[in-house]
From TrEMBL:
Residues 86-184 form the HTH araC/xylS-type domain. SMART domains: HTH_ARAC. This is Adenosine deaminase. The keyword Transferase applies. It comes from Planococcus rifietoensis. GO terms for molecular function: DNA-binding transcription factor activity; methyltransferase activity; sequence-specific DNA binding; zinc ion binding. Keywords: Activator, DNA-binding, Methyltransferase, Transcription, Transcription regulation, Transferase. GO terms for biological process: DNA repair; methylation. It comes from the Bacteria. Its cofactor is Zn(2+).
């Protein structure tokens, strides 16, 4: 699956620490010591970082000898639209650096734009556009904390078309400016 190239180990680790539901189905947390795999949103006690590896499908986890968590039950689909939701999220993750609209997402899943918008919102409580912005801001936050790239470089690399929109969305989602976030996370230079 292409998703492997889109996440670093540390990004996936952050998502499981946050119990971030929007990444469920895109990867699975495998705990080497217990031989259990979980969804990123699992509320079970978090393992030590050194005891974790990640898989990108249930089949991969089970082929490596892991069994499903009894708490989050990652092997059970929770909605008849899980595959649709995962297809949309995977498309957004694969194309977050590009200028994409609802029409491209709808073409990818073979449905009308209005149906994709309505069904995705029903399943995630967000529109594809707001979800895409969260993906972009998550990636920007990671780059701010872990690189010396300027805010402008990060803005453009994460698919934002204007710096003012980048700053507005970043502040809305993180409750601080990119510069404040970078200072708080203590990495990189001020950009």
């Amino acid at each position: 699956m292409e998703m492997e190239a889109k996440f670093t180990f540390d990004e996936m680790w952050e998502k499981i620490l946050d119990c971030d539901r929007k990444y469920d189905g895109l990867f699975f947390t495998c705990v080497k010591t217990t031989k259990i795999y979980c969804r990123p949103s699992c509320r079970s006690r978090k393992p030590k970082k050194r005891n974790v590896e990640f898989c990108f499908s249930i089949e991969e986890a089970e082929n490596r000898g892991f069994r499903a968590c009894k708490r989050c039950q990652p092997e059970i689909e929770q909605s008849p639209y899980v595959e649709f939701t995962q297809q949309v999220i995977a498309f957004l993750m694969d194309h977050y650096q590009q200028k994409i609209g609802l029409e491209e997402v709808a073409a990818h899943v073979g449905m009308s734009s209005s149906y994709v918008d309505r069904l995705f919102k029903q399943e995630t409580d967000e529109t594809p556009r707001s979800y895409l912005e969260k993906i972009r801001i998550d990636k920007a936050a990671y780059l701010l904390a872990n690189t010396n790239k300027t805010n402008l470089e990060i803005c453009l690399e994460t698919g934002f078309q204007s710096t003012s929109h980048f700053y507005k969305v970043f502040r809305d989602l993180k409750q601080q400016s990119p510069g404040q976030y970078r200072k708080e996370k203590g990495a990189g230079r001020n950009g």
